[in-house]
Specification:
The structure holds two protein chains of two kinds. Chain A has eleven helices and 19 strands. In chain A, strand 18 and strand 19 form a beta hairpin. Chain A starts with a strand and ends with a helix. Chain B has a single domain, classed as ABC transporter involved in vitamin B12 uptake, BtuC (Orthogonal Bundle), CATH 1.10.3470. Chain B is mainly alpha-helical. Chains A and B meet through helix 2, strand 7 and helix 3 of A and helix 10, helix 11 and helix 16 of B.
Amino acid sequence: MTNTILNTIDLTIGYSLRKNDPKIISSGLNLQLQAGEMVCLLGPNGAGKSTLMRTLAGLQPAISGDILINQTALKKLDASNLARNLSLILTDRIEVGNLTVREVVNLGRIPYTDWLGRLTKFDHEKVDWALDATETSVFQNFKITNLSDGERQKVMVARALAQDTSIIFLDEPTAHLDLPSRVEMMRLLHHLARTMQKAILMSTHELDLALQAADKLWLMKGDGTIKTGTPEDLVLNGNFEAAFSKSGFYFDKETGGFTIHQQPTQCNILVEGPDTALFWLKRALLREGYSTQPPYNPELKIKVDKEMEGFYYTLKTRELTSVHQTVQSLISAIKEVII
Amino acid sequence: MATTVSHKTILWGLVVVALFLFVMDIMLGSVSIPFDQVLRILIGQDTDNQAWLFIIEKIRLPKALTAILVGCGLSVSGLQMQTLFRNPLAGPSELGITAGAGLGVAAVMLGGGGSASMYAIRQLGVSGSWLIVLMASLGSALILIIILTIAGRLRDNVILLIVGVMIGTVTLSLISIWQYFSQPEQLQEYIMWTFGSLGGVTQSHLYVLGAVVAFGLTLAFISSKALNGLLLGDNYARSMGLTVGRIRFIVLASTSLLTGGITAFCGPIGFIGIAVPHITRSLFNTSDHRILIPGVCLVGTGLLLLCDIIAQMPGSESILPINVVTSLLGAPVVIWIIISRNNMRSSFS
């Protein structure tokens, strides 16, 4: 059974530079966020990802249409009511220090506390739970400024959890992070969505990670249209490729990765051998501008064989056959043959 | 939590220090009054020396109470401004807010012609002082609104400070033009006012100042939860259900009232507003406004009483203007803030 937490009805987003002259970014949107799902919002820069997120979060008004949160219209929710349903994690760096990790997470309870912001026993339990869930309780008494970017971002996730909302929005949460922290952040968010039945929407540029970790993708194209679906469906029906089509950068359905090189034109070479070695050899050849797809050049053939410790490469041309220990020497041999 | 216990201990320690300085402030001056006599007079017992009774009741007690009000008010308004602008260099005198209050005061003193001079306003009593408070607060609010508008477009702390100094200069120039075309008697009063004085507040004025400061502090304390939320920035504050526009308005009202009211009565007193929040933050090692607001009140009280003790130069006949002393003590603190970037970073970025 699916449990829709947020949906939009015929929503038009945009911004007005002047009164009565709105600049429309996207219209006719009927989007849905389900409990327990992590959705990644992808799209090129300037497509309007931020405008969509800001509109859904109630930070800027929609041009027309409705946004329903738990079946209640967003515009009918007052600020503190909305804050109990939806929490945000932003790219903004936390500029004010002198706050401990715990104090930052405590701030997540603001929508629930009295006028002085005093925390009850229940509030403290929620904070403890949020710190545990994000594995940040070990440094709860550290100053936030003494943490690494990755740890700091996890603290912000803990703060959002303490806010105890059914929806969490994240605006490029991995932007400042190194690769291991990015992977960890994605894993954490996916885990939280599953175990706590949160509806998570994050905008990101991490296409590779999004393909692997997201339950659904919202693909925003440069013209403002949005395609939704599981990552796999969007890849197989070509929408994913289309959203990011740019010269010199294309998506390889076979490997599920992006290729940063031009379509190879120089020569098509037949390669055969064990899969692992072939995968990496193909990458090296592609970088040099050789394709490994048919129609093959009849004059060239590479065969890879496994040895005790590694692989060796046999290059066969019409005139000669040479054996190479490394991809590097193989490539230089091919270059000599072709020129 | 262990930390709250130590915060409480520091607060009580500061209360003791402030009380000590309060008594010292009353004891010392051109005439030294013995400790036991001061205590006797303060708790309302009779004393054999009527001159001492007069000095304490009419001069030193109102002055010491004024010092407390000014210390609390300026420090809290500085703290609120630093949080609102997310800028360690924000303060009432640094961003030209006191200059704005000065503009309001000048409008009354110089603009009203001879009939509305400070002397005449003293004669008017309480209602006249309300007029000056109102004009000074409006002047402060005007400058604050201008700075807030500009701050929305600036990310750089130091540039905002420069803009503040420039706006302060423009305001002072406007006042100078006004002065240029004013009568000498009016000028003299205005210039005396700019030196700053805690002693000019009579008993009836003290009630007015007390009411204004109490109201401003109440507003600040009510908004301490919201100020804590603002520590993470406007966007996060909004996402946690806080109405940023309303918080801005409350902080603006509180800061304008505190700065305007105090400046109207005591003249532009510099550096307390910027220095005290920094001293307090490093003392308590926290950014929680529920602790910082009472904290800056106590530190501000203590510091201003200390400045006043120095200003009356015990044992000598003359008195220094309070503004001179606060600047001598406060300016080095500001330099220390700018030099020790670490301190700034741990509090603001």
